[in-house]
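Q: Please design a sequence for this.
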């Protein structure tokens, strides 16, 4: 069974059911630092529950090539999770709607240079999927002592290809 997804460009509107797109788009909300810095204020809804706190970790993921296999999604019932590329490279973002406690049919996006994502609490999402070396990301999520991870496997897995609208153009293809 061939299950193929086409990755499309990441936009705030398309991603809204799953979380927030982090980017400096439009006019800054405030000018700070003696006029030398534009602040794009409060761009994500961070949520760490009652038994957790915010933490920033650094992840180093192995880059993937097209087609990217998506076999696993996860969600965090106790808090949000944000991925911010530290290298500025595009990365693959996969999300799925919740269907009675299980992931529904996923959709795929390409985060452009300068974009990050914040998955809302309980959102099914693919694992960190860099498309370039070095695959370094700052990850802002819940630190706590109670369980905060659910995983589900797709059988068969999905294959993600770059979309016809140019999403993923110029990225590595598997040989």
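A: Design:
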């Amino acid at each position: 069974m061939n299950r193929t997804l086409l990755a499309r460009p990441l936009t705030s509107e398309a991603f809204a059911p799953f979380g927030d797109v982090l980017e400096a788009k439009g006019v800054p909300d405030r000018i700070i630092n003696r006029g030398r810095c534009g602040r794009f204020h409060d761009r994500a809804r961070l949520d760490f529950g009652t038994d957790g706190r915010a933490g920033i970790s650094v992840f180093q993921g192995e880059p993937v090539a097209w087609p990217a296999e998506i076999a696993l999604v996860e969600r965090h019932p106790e808090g949000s999770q944000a991925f911010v590329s530290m290298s500025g490279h595009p990365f693959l973002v996969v999300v799925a709607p919740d269907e009675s406690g299980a992931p529904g049919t996923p959709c795929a996006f390409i985060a452009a240079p300068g974009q990050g994502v914040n998955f809302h609490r309980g959102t099914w999402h693919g694992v960190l999927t860099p498309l370039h070396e070095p695959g370094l990301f700052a990850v802002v999520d819940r630190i706590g002592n109670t369980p905060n991870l659910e995983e589900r496997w797709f059988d068969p897995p999905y294959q993600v290809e770059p979309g016809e609208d140019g999403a993923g153009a110029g990225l590595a293809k598997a040989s």
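Q: Thanks. Anything notable?
A: The chain has one domain: 4-162. DSSP finds one helix and 16 strands in the chain.
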